[in-house]
Design goal:
It is a single chain. The protein has 300 residues and is of the alpha/beta class. It folds into two domains: 95 residues, Leucine Dehydrogenase, chain A, domain 1 (Rossmann fold, 3-Layer(aba) Sandwich); 141 residues, NAD(P)-binding Rossmann-like Domain (Rossmann fold, 3-Layer(aba) Sandwich). It is built from ten helices and eleven strands. The strands form three sheets. The chain has a six-stranded parallel β-sheet with strand order 1-11-8-7-5-6. The protein has a three-stranded parallel β-sheet with strand order 3-2-4, sandwiched between helices. Helix 1 packs parallel to helix 10, helix 6 packs across helix 7 and helix 6 crosses helix 10.
Length: 300
């Protein structure tokens, strides 16, 4: 029996509806969330991301503005700009668009954002709060993955949870979030011996390793909940394993996750698709964090 597909788009829509109601209530009290995006230089993928952010924010009543800094901006100038936004009471949330130009330390720049305006939850202070169980501002993708697990409605307490990937934006925060839900998390990475042995014992498997279709169906425990965080662009192949060409004679590309969906869905009880799973929920978590940042600033 095939797994039940967890519809990320539908789930995100429900959260978005609740946020619209919450924002209306805040506005009636005189509070308006304002997300300020900062972009240094031109980047095509970043530009698309910014446009999507603006569309999503404005659709639910969040004010969104973009500060575009020239590509030759120095780290010191970016630092001053972020500090200025930190001190601006009209700005309730800040997001720094990646990538940054060469010569600017992205991690250092990220940590300059005031914790109460850090809508991506990446400031060390917010990471520290997560250790203590405060989940008001958490990395968006990590929170999306855990919310999708919770959406299934299965008892999480005591469940063996294997997280494949130890990044600061997914693997590490997911492990803490699942620990807070009384699951028993195991974090796997490039140094893990016998990865399959770890994934096969998982009642809940969260894949965030960044390698296309690395997790096969035979690596999954029958009946497991599978959350696929990966987003990988690969060539589309025909039945003979040859690249499919587009009208311009170039290989057609498709988006796949870190889990081999076709085989995994025959083993798992629930599974997220790629695209359409974690991605839409990650976007709505950014919106949620933006509202939460306002509430923190206003002591609400």
């Amino acid at each position: 029996m095939s797994a039940i597909i967890i519809d990320g788009e539908s789930f995100a829509g429900k959260i978005r509806t609740r946020l619209i109601e919450e924002i209306d209530t805040l506005k009636n009290k005189g509070f308006c969330p304002h997300l300020k995006a900062v972009q240094v230089g031109e980047n095509a993928s970043s530009r698309l991301y910014v446009q999507n952010q603006q569309k999503q924010c404005e659709a639910i009543g969040i004010k969104y503005t973009l500060d575009e800094l020239p590509a030759d901006t120095k780290e010191a100038a970016l630092t001053e700009h972020i500090k200025k936004l930190n001190n601006d009471p009209q700005v309730t949330g800040i997001i720094l668009q990646m990538p940054l130009p060469e010569g600017i330390d992205a991690k250092k720049a990220q940590t300059l954002i005031a914790p109460h305006k850090d809508v991506e939850g990446m400031n060390p202070a917010n990471m520290g709060e997560l250790v203590y169980g405060n989940t008001r501002l958490v990395p968006c993708t990590a929170m999306a993955a855990v919310e999708l697990v919770k959406s299934v409605g299965v008892e999480i307490r005591g469940k063996e949870t294997t997280i494949v990937g130890r990044s600061a934006i997914v693997g590490k925060p997911v492990s803490l979030l699942m620990l807070d839900l009384s699951a028993t998390p195991t974090v796997c990475h490039s140094g893990t011996k016998d990865l399959s042995a770890q994934t096969r014992k998982a009642d809940i498997l969260i894949a965030a390793i960044g390698k296309a279709e690395m997790i096969k169906g035979d690596m999954i425990k029958p009946g497991a909940i599978v959350i696929d965080v990966g987003i990988n662009r690969v060539k589309e192949l025909d039945a003979q394993g040859n690249p499919v060409m587009n009208v311009n004679g170039k290989p057609k590309m498709k988006t796949v996750g870190d889990v081999e969906f076709a085989t995994a869905k025959e083993v798992a009880s629930y599974i997220t698709p790629v695209p359409g799973g974690v991605g839409p929920v990650t976007v709505v978590m950014l919106l949620r964090n933006t509202v939460e940042a306002l509430k923190i600033s206003a002591n609400l």
